[in-house]
Amino acid sequence: MVAPTPVVGLRREREVLTVALATGRHVVLEGPPGTGKSTLLRSIAADTGQEVVFVEGNAELTPARLIGQFDPSQVLAEGYRPEHFVDGPLITAMRRGGLLYMEELNRVPEETLNVLITVLTEGEIAVPRLGAVVAGKDFRLIAAMNPFDAVGTARVSQAIADRMCRVVLGYQDVEGEREITESVSGLSGRWVDLSVHLTRATREHRDVRMGSSVRGAIDLSLVLTGLAALRGEPDPGRDTAQDAAYAALSGRIRVADGVDRTPESVIDELLDRLWPADPTESDADAPDAEGKGDSPPGSTPPGFQPRSRPGRERAQRTQGRQQLAQQHPAFADVSPDVGELSAEAFDAAVAE
Known about the structure:
Blueprint: H1 11-22, E1 27-30, H2 37-48, E2 52-56, H3 63-67, E3 68-70, H4 72-78, E4 85-87, H5 89-96, E5 99-103, H6 110-113, H7 116-122, E6 124-127, E7 131-134, E8 140-145, H8 158-161, E9 165-168, H9 174-185, H10 190-202, E10 208-210, H11 214-230, H12 238-249, E11 254-255, H13 263-274, H14 321-327, H15 331-334, H16 343-351
Parallel strand pairs: 1-8, 1-9, 2-5, 5-8
Antiparallel strand pairs: 3-4, 6-7, 10-11
Helix pairs in contact: 9-10, 9-11, 10-11, 10-13, 11-12, 12-13
């Protein structure tokens, strides 16, 4: 059996969620991907011994799929009888008094969400031809959703929001994400540090609307070390780090609207800051260049460092017409007015 992902940090959020469930409240967990919403719920459910019924929220989740429906073949043979009803995840959780965990709440059609209003208020639901189904005393709805501005999301109606508590989860600090990455990947050391710092940097880049979660750091550390082993590198080289970063992070980065660049170009820029390319890498065989470009500086990436960008250096300040006239006596003849140029005067000045 795979060991569950540990809950790192989130002490306050865990306490709030635990008390909310114990006092009969329904809760929505809000936060970007990879902030531990599912992990937190699984941990609490394991502690309380409650069953968790999962349902994935999307545009295809209809009321019938959420509630359940009669088996058509049995209905044709024997009519509408209670034993012919196939429970959906909502009815299953209600009958068993378990936790219904609905992911991506704000991607579910409003028609389907409206089914939950009576359940959240009265603890029961009336199903046509089946009758009323009353929820067990420990039934709770735990919903998770990304922030509203995420692609494909919509605002949850006030009728639903007014019947649920809301717990907001954010990204862990750097120490927390390092601990998570080490625990899940089984790795430690400078390559985990590089993976965590590079992943976190994607969330702060000016051209990125949404960066990678800690899942990117986990994947990056595993792909990086595995790729180095495949290539026979004692320590991953910079090209290997670039290939691994492309694989682990490029699909998780969403470039801001209107920005004409690729996720790979963002990764290149961030990697340059954390692990600058060695300009003398071609001379790596020279005695005084041994080890250059083979590992990031220090055991921990230093973070963002200023660097020069060819072709993007700050230009020198331009001079005004008055200054040019003082320096060049023929300037007034060459350019009588702004935007004007006398070709004859210019040729004469050049000839002098």
